[in-house]
Batch of 2 targets.
Target 1
Amino acid sequence: MDFKGSDTIPGPRAEDQLPHTTQAAAKIVIVGGFGVGKTTMVGSVSEIKPLTTEETMTQAGIGVDDNFGSDSKTATTVAMDFGRISITDQLVLYLFGTPGQQRFWFLWNGLFEGALGAVVLVDTRRLEVSFDVMGRLEERGVPFVVAINSFPDAPRYPIEELRTALDLAPDIPIMECDARRRASSRDVLMTLMRFLHSLAMTGSRT
Amino acid sequence: MTPPQRQRRNPAPEPAPQPSQEGEGKPNPERMYVVAGPDGERAELDLVTLIVARAADPPPSATPEQAALLRLCAAPLSVAELSAYLSLPFSAMGTLLTELLTAELVHARSPIVRQAVPDRSLLEAVMNGLQRL
Ligand SMILES: Nc1nc2c(ncn2[C@@H]2O[C@H](COP(=O)(O)OP(=O)(O)OP(=O)(O)O)[C@@H](O)[C@H]2O)c(=O)[nH]1
Ligand SMILES: [Mg+2]
């Protein structure tokens, strides 16, 4: 790899530096199908301009039934946007906007295993694209909440009808949101935290 | 109009079935990035492991790549951010950081990971932090 040289690397702005007291970071994932608003949600709550980490996926990782078509023998670059929220001077929270296809998840070690929980972003125009990811989270025991990103031309269903359609366990929160609005995205994260807190009160769900 | 219908799934028995030919699930062994932790213990490198340089300036012996990383983490910075700023894939960070940890040029602060029963005081701290957003 041709390295650019250290003088050309832009780092975090001075105001974006974490204090030296920062002891540890936790992460949550925002997962959903193509174009559902993952990057928008990360950007609306992040204190830094969202950044992107990339990973290369080689042949072995590419399934046969995907849409890479004739390029399926070559390596594919998978990008993941992320942002950050400082919680205290010792704790920082990272948010990762992760593509819905599970074959991408293993590229980043511990992404789902270590996440405190997940937000599943859903678009009611294409509800079924989030079915698989929700099932995978259930199988892996990753607690999640569902946020319906309200696009203007999307069909609107009563929230209880969506709960039934998504076959959500009764305790799993489901809510509408506008990923472009910080307050709305913050409410979604808050709902996830309250849900995780309720799991802590009742013991883990198994 | 009625929405399409999903069927809930159950937690997979441990260990979860992982068809290796699909490349899913269990990370490929070459993707298990093991680095020396602060007390010489071995830890997996996580996207949100925090890296901090031990000295103010990179030593003259550092490669340009190492020097760039050391300058970036004068203050704590996650592996994800380092990967983004250096335009290096996450997998390349493992090698680079293992060198720097072995040379005792950086500290690594382990991430907080999900526990079977969530840590209530952690969640309360996060809720308070979000409230201030
Ligand atoms: N009306 C409306 N538009 C939104 C909302 N959230 C996102 N959008 C728009 O939807 C488009 C896709 O949003 P992104 O945030 O890029 O979606 P994404 O999930 O990151 O997309 P990929 O990374 O390409 O899968 C953008 O043009 C957004 O401006 C929302 O809550 N309401
Ligand atoms: Mg995106």
Target 2
Amino acid sequence: METAIELVDVSFVYGTGTVFRTDALSGVSVKIAKGRVSGIIGHTGSGKSTMVQMMNGLIKPTSGSVRLFGEDIFADKKKLRDIRFRVGLVFQYPEYQLFEETVYKDIAYGPTNMKLDEKEIERRVKKAASLVGLDEDLFSKSPFELSGGQKRRVAIAGIMAMEPEVLVLDEPASGLDPVGRKDIFKAILDFRDATGGTVVIVSHSMEDMASYADDIIVMNHGKCFVSGCKEEVFKKADELCKMGLDVPQITSLMTRLRAMGMEIPEGIYTVEDAAKALLPLLLQKAGGGGV
Amino acid sequence: MMSDITLGQFFPGNSPLHRIDPRMKLILTILYIVVVFMADTIVSVLAVLLLSVLLIPVGNIPLRTVLKSMKPLLFIMIFTGLINLFWTKDGILVCSFWIIEIYSAGIVQAIFIIVRIAALLLGSTMLISYTTSPIALTDGMEQLLAPLSRIKIPVHDFAMMMTIALRFIPTLIEETDKIMSAQKARGADFSTGSIIKRAKALIPIFIPLFLSCIRRADELAVAMECRCYNGGKGKTRMNVLHYKALDFAALALVIVAGVLVFFVNKVPLPVFLLTK
Ligand SMILES: Nc1ncnc2c1ncn2[C@@H]1O[C@H](COP(=O)(O)OP(=O)(O)OP(=O)(O)O)[C@@H](O)[C@H]1O
Ligand SMILES: [Mg+2]
């Protein structure tokens, strides 16, 4: 499988030489596979945001290197700006970065910086807006008149409109209601399907990661605790629990039922899958003249 | 980049200098400045500088940090020194070339001025900037100036405004940093192009920043009202300041230094050490 982004033995220290020195990352090596959705999960302060800001060259690792399709992104300073167009980063609470008079102009800010022509910008803005589910009637409104969830979508569309090869999102769904969360994740998956790009999502929620991610990277105290496809990662459920990170509730329920002797396959992470696995068992029981 | 700016230079610690009551520190600083200006011979001013240098190990501040923060003022010190060097025409003529004549008094005067500025800066920064947290400082200021509220000067309100402003400076720096990064991620370019282009490039930073300031101010006001804040009237404090033995010891020390300077000033000096 081709690697889109690779961090090689990366460390980062905030506030070197001051009293407030923090080792945010120490010796992290991870690979992000091309065309897949990778989830980064970990506690508050485990270095997730620091890690994703390295992926588009906003911060330079104290040691180690960051590679985009095999190239060191810090090799040529002049190319950093291009790197940022190739790796689109949506910050935590991106709605606070909106500034333009209209929604349209705000989404177009990135593509305009790319010096695309009017027509292409318009095409991209419309496409990004439809991906995140924004109505075109909103284009002429001020972004400050929108609801929180709509603002968030405008901000995400602003990055999607740059059509990056890798889309990185830091807590894209935090502070939204369940429906809002679902919509955002759906938009992200739609983007991936439409462009064939790679997606990296930072999240606190194992449930969300279980439903939407293919690979998972677990961060703990600035180190990569485990990474791999989600089936493998969730096999370490016990260790994750010890770290205070939960596997999805439905998965731990299934694990316990299996421990009690029910024949349930491994690798169930969503309620739908659980229903599919349980239904035949229940029918069998009912048919067998039980309760 | 923004995080490199050390604001207020406060250096947390628990040295005797840190523990002096902030009100006393303000008084001490004023007294110290008086002492520096009292010292009017090269010997006494050097003695004062020595005293303030001794404060560095007492306050447990790394020497490198102190030197680094003095660097921006080096230019002013040297410039003032040079002016004094060339414009003082007293004492023994040391050398002359072209239209420049340098006298012994000029050399002494130049050193005197440089040492005085250095002593002034070093002493007051050691007492205030490095060892007093900005919040403790405004607190001390408010209580020292409290008598002024009798003549209807809103001391408490000014102190509260200052405390809030100080409290939010780091937050705003952090916020600016974050917004800049977010706009850079969208391809913003702050460092190339004409001045007008660069000024325009700041709009995507300033608008979100202003909005966030206003939002924070609004939230803070509501939060304060919810806690029944209604100005200084009848307000009690969590940390009540008390003068301790240490404070009076420090006061005594500065007064002793002042008396010493007074006598050292009177010591007769050989003519080549005189400024006039
Ligand atoms: N600008 C900064 N200056 C100094 N220290 C910082 C800064 N940003 C983060 N840190 C520190 O670096 C560590 C990692 O922070 P980071 O923001 O990467 O964590 P995170 O995993 O994203 O946390 P969260 O889930 O809360 O967003 C933390 O200990 C934090 O205190
Ligand atoms: Mg974070």
